[in-house]
Specification:
Blueprint (H helix, E strand, L loop, with lengths): L1 H51 L2 H69 L12 E2 L4 E3 L5 E2 L3 E4 L2 E4 L3 E6 L2 E6 L11 E9 L3 E5 L6 E8 L11 H5 L1 H4 L5 E9 L5 E5 L5 E2 L3 E5 L12 E4 L3 E5 L4 E6 L2 H14 L7 H19 L10 H19 L6 H11 L11 H18 L3
Parallel strand pairs: 3-7, 10-12
Antiparallel strand pairs: 1-6, 2-5, 4-5, 6-7, 8-9, 8-11, 9-10, 11-12, 11-13, 14-17, 15-16, 16-17
Helix pairs in contact: 1-2, 5-6, 7-8, 7-9, 8-9
Length: 437
């Protein structure tokens, strides 16, 4: 209705402009006709006087009459120019007002239309979005039948209607509709701490499976050499690539950069990265791993866990470097009571770094006691229980579920569906009691 009223207003303005032009032209023609009549009357008088008068009088009147004719013509031309200028000014003014009114009406109608589009998800189920932002849809389900929306990831367009192609939640950004899948492959981001598996050894590079759509790449220049030597990689190092990492080896690394096709480039230029040993591997959905500053945690029972952002989890026996890092943190706070302890600690840390730098590519596992193996297995089953209950996997939840699992003596019982649901409920209840939920 508002658009119809705006259009009628524009039509009225155009009609008024046309009437104004018609009135001006009418007055102009009336003025011209009056001047023409006067001109004809003067010419007729000139002919009459020319036949009755003598030559001298006729010459005088003839000399006087032509002088009057140009004055009349000049006045007519001046009147015409004035009328034309008035018409041009009125036409420019009317056109400018019309264009401004049309622009304002278009902008107002556009803003109202955008407002209607934003509100259609909540109030309009026929011409707008049938599902609100964040609602869950299934493949083939109609999202909207309004063709004004653009299709994004997880959607497809058919007969001016947008449908979902995956199971996920509806996401709306301006006029872009997309569906975020509930479960999907890992999408790498720069700075992610990940766990991967070597799949191929190529020309100065390794291909690493990180659970993404494409294999990641670990360049030879992005790893530390045994002994911590800092130098350019040579052909000899290229020939020894399989001595560093070979097919099937697990490693933890950091995403250094992303290529244009979305694949990741990794690096292991730190002692906390490298080949993984003395543990077991667990895979969970990447969406359950909560990003944090630190993804390596020392857990009770002499166990260290690495929570890869890509959903790959490594549980291992705590090494000397893990324990030294923990004692360094606590020892720095006790430096006031123990003079010179920082120097001794730094020397021991340096020696441990040298030893670990030689062991980062070793294939030989350390001796793992039976109790530590059972603890590692318990933590692995606890993480599977959290994933079964679709709970975000964090260090506090792992410890809480581990403490709740101590009531079950049989480790195999922890992977039963009823037991996993019970552990998940215990974790939720403990968080509610602490006020974290």
């Amino acid at each position: 209705m508002e658009q119809n009223s705006v259009l009628s207003l524009h039509q009225i303005k155009r009609c008024l402009t046309v009437d104004l032009c018609c009135n001006i032209f009418t007055s102009f023609t009336t003025l011209i006709s009056s001047h023409l009549i006067a001109l004809l009357f003067n010419l007729e008088n000139f002919q009459l006087t020319n036949t009755k008068s003598n030559k001298g009088t006729a010459r005088k009147s003839a000399h006087r009459t032509p002088s009057a004719v140009p004055d009349i013509v000049i006045s007519l031309l001046g009147t015409m120019s004035d009328v034309i200028s008035v018409i041009n000014r009125n036409e420019f003014w009317s056109n400018g007002r019309l264009e401004q009114d049309e622009y304002e009406s278009d902008s107002s109608s556009g803003s109202e239309q955008e407002h209607d589009i934003e509100m259609s998800g909540a109030h309009d189920s026929n011409g707008g979005i049938d599902h609100q932002d964040g609602s869950i849809v299934t493949p083939g389900e109609l999202i909207t039948d309004d063709p004004i929306w653009m299709k994004g990831h997880g959607t497809y367009f058919l007969e001016n209607k947008t449908y979902s192609s995956v199971v996920g939640t509806v996401s709306r950004v301006n006029r872009l509709l997309s569906v975020l899948p509930l479960k999907s492959r890992y999408i790498p981001e720069t700075g992610d701490h990940i766990v991967g598996r070597i799949t191929d050894v190529g020309n100065r590079r390794w291909k690493v499976d990180i659970g993404a759509k494409q294999y990641a790449v670990l360049m030879l220049g992005s790893v530390n050499l045994p002994g911590g030597v800092l130098r350019r990689k040579s052909e000899t190092d290229e020939l020894q690539m399989r001595n560093f990492l070979k097919e099937g080896d697990l490693l933890n690394a950091e995403v250094q950069s992303l290529f244009q096709d979305g694949s990741a480039s990794l690096h292991t230029r730190s002692l906390k990265y490298g080949k993984l040993r003395n543990g077991t591997f667990v895979q969970v959905p990447s969406s359950l791993i909560v990003r944090s500053k630190n993804h390596t945690h020392n857990l009770p029972g002499n166990v260290t866990i690495i929570l890869g952002v890509n959903g790959f989890v490594w549980i291992r026996k705590s090494s000397k470097m893990d324990l030294s890092g923990k004692t360094t943190t606590t020892g720095s706070g006790q430096s006031d009571h123990l003079p010179g302890s920082n120097n001794a600690m730094s020397v021991s840390i340096t020696r441990l770094e040298e030893e670990s730098s030689w062991e980062i590519y070793s294939d030989k596992n350390d001796t793992v006691t039976v109790s530590v193996r059972q603890t590692i297995t318990r933590y692995a089953n606890v993480i599977k229980a959290l994933a079964h209950c679709e709970l975000g996997i964090t260090e506090p939840r792992i410890i809480s579920a581990y403490e709740a699992s101590m009531a079950y003596g049989n480790l195999g019982q922890l992977i039963e569906s009823e037991t996993m649901e019970s552990l998940g409920q215990d974790v939720i209840n403990s968080e509610k009691m602490r006020g974290a939920a």
